[in-house]
Amino acid sequence: MEKHHLGRNGPLVSVVGLGCMGMSGMYGPADRGESIATIHAALDAGINLLDTGDFYGMGHNEMLIGEALRGRKRDDIVLSVKFGALRDPAGNWSGYDSRPAAMKNFLAYTLKRLDVDYIDIYRPARLDPDVPIEETVGAIGDMIKAGYVRHVGLSEVGVDTIRRAANTHPICDLQIEYSLISRGIEDQILPTCRELGISITAYGVLSRGLISGHWQKGQETGAGDFRRMSPRFQAGNIEQNLALVEELRTIAQAKKVSVAQVAIAWVAAQGQDIVPLVGARRRDRLTEALDSRALQLSFEDMAAIERAVPKDAAAGARYPDAQLKHMDSEK
């Protein structure tokens, strides 16, 4: 699989990465055996970038990945880990903690759960309003000097924070939502990252399955599924959003590919500095995503996609208002 460097001095990563969050309950129950088989299939296909967070399943996701990586050559894997999100015993979210001492504590547990000696890319999951980004990034830099981390990444932060972080330590990538129906980064964040030589690892490229072509009107979400609270999946919004998918399906059918493949290929076509993270938790969905690499979108195709799904055409915000208020990237 083709590989590119993340940022000016970041690791060499596959042009598609695997986001592992959905394997630990964020979208309802997942099959452990199938999750591990999917990670193995991704690695065997040439994907070397695995993304996780220490709060996914309260450590479950890291232990799952650690189990899947046993027997694999460590240097062949690029592990990207987010930290800082706090949860209570009931699984509720209770803020962020990016203090240097807290970061070192989170990192120690992450290394243990993953059963590795270092993390390739370490990043705060969100901006902690009580801790200057310089302190957090500087402390990660100290962990790089100590050999526990290789690169600093960011997640869901805005232009000012990106610049301040980059002035403190080289940043290899910004992880942020980017898809046909989530294009807010195009105005200021993406140009700033390109100016500073920071790549984008794009999550939500299928908008949590909404624009995968597989979501059905009236489809139920189970307990613990984030989509139960997502504005775009709510009545009054879901109908408009699925109508956009049907417009996209017409284009996909003409090219004899799936809707998901068109959506992933569109993100990948935005530049070599953008790496789509596919959130497959089953091997068949992974295969579908990987096959998107063979899809070449012409200028005419891109124009048709823009007409089918115009910028800002989606109904509903990408997160509930309460969460958007705390997202630096939305300010």
Automatic annotation (TrEMBL):
Gene3D superfamilies, alphabetized: NADP-dependent oxidoreductase domain
SUPFAM superfamilies cross-referenced by the UniProt entry: NAD(P)-linked oxidoreductase
Pfam families: Aldo_ket_red
Domain NADP-dependent oxidoreductase: 16-308
Membrane spanning residue stretches: none
Keywords recorded for this protein, A-Z: Oxidoreductase
Keyword Oxidoreductase assigned: yes
Record's GO cellular component terms: cytoplasm
GO molecular function: oxidoreductase activity
Domain of life: Bacteria
Name of protein: NADP-dependent oxidoreductase domain-containing protein
